Input
Amino acid sequence: MRRILVDSIKGSEKLARDIVNDNGTIIIANGNVLKKQYIDRLKELGINYIYVEDELSEGVDDEQIQELLIQDQCLTNVKEIIDKYSYQAVDELIEIKKIAEEIIRDILKEPEVMFSIYGIRKKSESIYSHCINVCSLSVLIAIKMKLPRTKIRDIAVGSLLHDIGYNLVSFDYMDSIFNNCTKEQQKELMSHVIDGYSLLIRESWISVSSKDIILCHHERLDGSGYPFHKKADKIKIGSKIVGVCDEFDSKVYGHLEPKMKVHDTIRYIINQSGIKFDPDVVNAFKDSIAYYPNGIGIVTNEGETGIVLRQNPRNPARPVIRMITDIQGNKYNYWLEKDLTKYTKIAIWDTIEL
Output
C-alpha cells in the first residue's frame, strides 16, 4: 500500500482504503479499481490523496502507512472536539486528554518506528491534521529524550491544542503565505498564541506546562520568536520540542509559508540547531523522522529512479529502495533492491511522483 496524490491516478490502481467525504460517507469503496475520470470529482470534494495497492507498492513496508491510519482515526475525534469547543461546548474539550493518551500508548508500543510525513492533506482537515502530526512527532521526540511520563503527557495535550487560537482568526488564512499578508493580518495571525492561551487559561485540567506550550511554541533560542522573544533556557523543554515539530510540519505542508520537501525541511531544522532550535531536541528529531517515507518515489545521484521500501532506523537518510528505472530510463524487468547503508556511493538526489 502507498499513499498517492489524486493527480497521480493513472486509472489502473486498486484502492486500498475507502475514500470518504467530510461527513464520513463512502464515495468509493476499498478494492475498487480507480479510473482517471474520478480525478476531477475527488478534487472537487477536497480529496487530494488516496491509498492504493499497485505494482509499484509491492514490497513496501506498510508499517508507516498504518501509523498514518492511526493518525487519521484520531483526526476525526480532534476535529469534532475542537469544533464543539468553538461553539462553547466546554465540557467536550477534556476528551483531548484521552486522545493524547491514545497517541502516547500507540507510540510506546513501537518507540523505534520512524515518523513519516507525506506533505499531502485535505484543506478541510488541515489545522487538525497539523495538530495530530505535531503531537505524534513531539511525543516520539520526548520519549527518545527519556522525559518523564507526566512531561510527555503535558507535551501531548499542549501540542494537540497549540493552535486552537487560530479558531479566532477573522479571515480565511488557509491558503495564505504569512509574508504576503497585510501587517494587520500578520498581527492577528501571531496573536493565535495569546488568544489560545487566554481561551484555556481557566481550564484547570490543563497543566501549566501544556498551557506554556500553547503560549510559547513560537519562541526561538536566538530571541527571534514570539510573543515574548524569549531566549535559550527561558524557553521550557515542551515548547522547544513542539516548536521544532510545528515548524517542520508547517514547512512540509505549506502552512502560512512556502511548501518545502520533507528532506529539505529536515536539513533546515538541523542547520538551525543551536541557533533557533535546541540541539538536544534536534538530535532526537533527526533520529525520529523518515527523510524519505516508505512508498515515496526517488531519483538517485546516478539518475536511476526507485521507490522507498523500508527504513534504516539507525540511518534515516539512507533507506532501502527498489530500483524502477536505470540511468537511461529503461525499466528494470527484475527485482533490484538496494540498501543505501551498503551502497555508499549512491545518494537520493530528490523525491518524485511515480
Summary: The CA atoms of residues 344 and 354 lie 24 Å apart. The radius of gyration is 21 Å.
